[in-house]
């Protein structure tokens, strides 16, 4: 079976985009309350690094699948998804750079401000991730992009396009 790699990879950066606001908020709160030292912030950086790295792999695997999907989906629709993926990746990379600041700064108030900026940024990246997922879902479910990977042995089902289609006759 020749299944695409892209759908197997994309779930990790999207899941991390959902988890990073929780992780970042929790660690920032713990640092503000002085429950942890700022070294714990390294977990935020590691999570953001993993998001960016897996996002990069998702972009690369998407480009590999693009040629096949263009057989059934208009290139402009695929490009919208790809551009949303690139915005997500750039936003995540920018936030990765910002997330390093709390470890580099010395003054507690500056550390907390940089941490708060990172926390806010995780919600922005989550929004970008939502857009990518929405566009990807439209490709698969709205434009039947997965059909190019289905084989006769898998029982590919043709798409119905009529309002009056009814199996129960």
Strand coverage percent? under 5%
Task: Give the CA-CA distance, first to last residue.
Answer: 35 Å
Number of helices: 6
Low-confidence stretches: 160-165
How many domains comprise the coordinates?
1
Secondary structure class reads mainly alpha
The Cα radius of gyration reads 20 Å
How do the SSEs run, as a string of H and E?
HHHHHH
- Residue-averaged pLDDT, rounded? 86
Shape: elongated
Tell me the total number of β-strands: 0
- How many strands, which pairing sense, and closed or not: the largest β-sheet? none
Share of residues in helices: 55-70%
Quick structural gist:
The chain is elongated and about 60 Å long. 70% of the residues lie in helices and 0% in strands. The chain is mainly alpha-helical and 169 residues long.
């Amino acid at each position: 079976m020749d299944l695409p790699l892209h759908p197997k990879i994309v779930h990790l950066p999207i899941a991390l985009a959902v988890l990073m606001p929780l992780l970042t908020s929790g660690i920032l709160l713990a640092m503000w309350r002085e429950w942890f030292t700022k070294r714990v912030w390294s977990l935020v950086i590691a999570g953001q690094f993993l998001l960016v790295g897996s996002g990069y792999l998702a972009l690369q695997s998407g480009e590999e699948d693009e040629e096949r999907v263009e057989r059934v989906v208009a290139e402009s629709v695929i490009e919208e998804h790809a551009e949303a993926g690139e915005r997500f990746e750039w936003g995540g990379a920018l936030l990765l750079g910002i997330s390093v600041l709390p470890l580099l700064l010395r003054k507690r108030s500056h550390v907390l401000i940089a941490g708060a900026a990172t926390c806010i940024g995780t919600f922005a990246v989550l929004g970008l991730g939502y857009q990518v997922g929405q566009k990807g879902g439209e490709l698969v479910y709205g434009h039947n992009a997965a059909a190019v990977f289905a084989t006769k042995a898998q029982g590919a089902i043709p798409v119905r396009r009529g309002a009056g289609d009814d199996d129960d006759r």
